[in-house]
Every structure is written in C-alpha cells, then in structure tokens.
Amino acid sequence: MKLHTRYLPQASSTCADESECFACDHQPAINEIEKVQALVAQLRAIILPEYEMIPDLRLELVSQLFGSLQDCASKAILELWRYGESTSYMTPVPHYDGHQWRKYGQKNITNSKHQRSYYRCTYKHEQNCMATKTVQQQEHNTTETVMYTVVYYAHHTCKANTGPALPHVIETSTPQSAMSPDRIIASQETVSPHTGSHKILENGHATQQLTEDMQVLLKKIACAPLDSDIWEMDAILCRINAC
DNA sequence: CAAATTTGACCACT
DNA sequence: AGTGGTCAAATTTG
C-alpha cells in the first residue's frame, strides 16, 4: 500500500493494486526526471562561472541550453502529473454517475464524427469544486449499444446531493480504476437481461412482467442520446429502484 | 423568472 | 494557423 499524497493530493487514497495504479507506476519515472533536474542544476553551477571568467560568445548558448534542459524536465513532470489527474471510462450511460454536472461547452473534435461535451460540477462556484468531465460518443462500437468515453478531471470536493445509487452497478475496466473509488459508472453489464431471468424463476409470473418493464427501462437508458435530460434518467432509475 | 443549455468568441498551447 | 478547453451572452426550458 502506498499513499499518493504527492501527485494526487486531493485523493489521499491508498491503492489496492499497484500494477493498475498510475502513481505507483509512474513515480519512479518522475523521481528520475527530478534527479536529472538536480544534476543539471549542479552542472550549471559548475560550468557557467567558468565561462563567465573567460568572455566567450558561447556563454549565452550554454546558458540557453541549460535553461532548455530544465524546461524539458519540468514539462515532462507536468505531463505525467496531468495524465495522472484524469480517469477515463467507457459507458452507455454517461450522464448518470451520482454527481450533478453543468454543461459549459461542446466542440467538434478533429477526425471524430461526434462532438465532445464539457461538463463542470454544478457546485463549482458555491463550493469551489473543480471536478470536470468530458463526454464523447465512441467512433466504432462493437456492440449494439451506443457507448461513450467519459473522462473525469479532478475529484469532487463539494458536499452535494449525490442522488440515488445505482442497483448492481459494475465498474468498467480501467487502467486507473483503483484511483477512483467514488466514480462508479454503470457498465454495459448493468443492462444485462440475466438478472431478470433469475427473478422470473424465483418469483413467478407477476415478477416476470415486472422484470420485462425493467428491461424496457434499462434499454431506454442504454440507448438514450447524448443530450438526454439527466433528470429523466433519475426518474427512470428511481422507478427501477422501486421495482 | 431562475436555472440550464447552446454556441460563437476567446485563449493557451504547439 | 490549427486545435482543444473555457467563457459568457443569448436562448431555451421548466
């Protein structure tokens, strides 16, 4: 177990599986880059005073090269850090994740048929919550269900109403799933008819009608367009919970 | 009428 | 200059 307080300060979580954890995976690389930064600084401290003693046109060039080296190292760390902040999922229900979002933008993405939508936490201004997410319909679906790629940036720091929990929610496979225990997204398995068939065997004819209704509702969620109203989804899920 | 969404403009980065 | 992310005024929705 490791604490990722350095590169995931807001999460301060422990990881159960280091092989799937960004911070555990990339921390050695970040450490090595920081060593390079320290060595470059030492080298600069030794070499530049020597050049200053002997007036030379190369002094400026050498100084620039050291500057570039430091910039490269800083950017490399920044990129690793930024990548570590995001988590992406595939889901047929991009709107229902237990948080309230406000859409603030939509863009055409090059070489992509579908637009990308940008969402921020509804409580961004009231509670200074910096959580954002992007939603984009996937290009090539191997299944009949329309799937979306949802990328989350930063964690929720707001104390919002988190809405009803999904029944039998299964997290989609993700390389960084261990980092985001609070971001459970309904996967395609949620709309599997298997759960319904079990109830038919257990409870008889009345339940069969009920589970058929549930399947219709679940199919409606799975096939909903990207711009469906989130509260309509909530209403549907409340009915499912009532079942 | 307040809240949410849309959409063109703007900005940073490469 | 092209691209992606954000802002904010206009518009829509409940």
TrEMBL record:
UniProt GO MF annotations: DNA-binding transcription factor activity; sequence-specific DNA binding
InterPro entries from the UniProt entry: WRKY_dom, WRKY_dom_sf, WRKY_plant
The WRKY domain, residue ranges: 97-158
Any Gene Ontology CC annotation: nucleus
Compartments reported by the entry: Nucleus
Recorded superkingdom: Eukaryota
Protein name: WRKY domain-containing protein
Organism: Setaria viridis
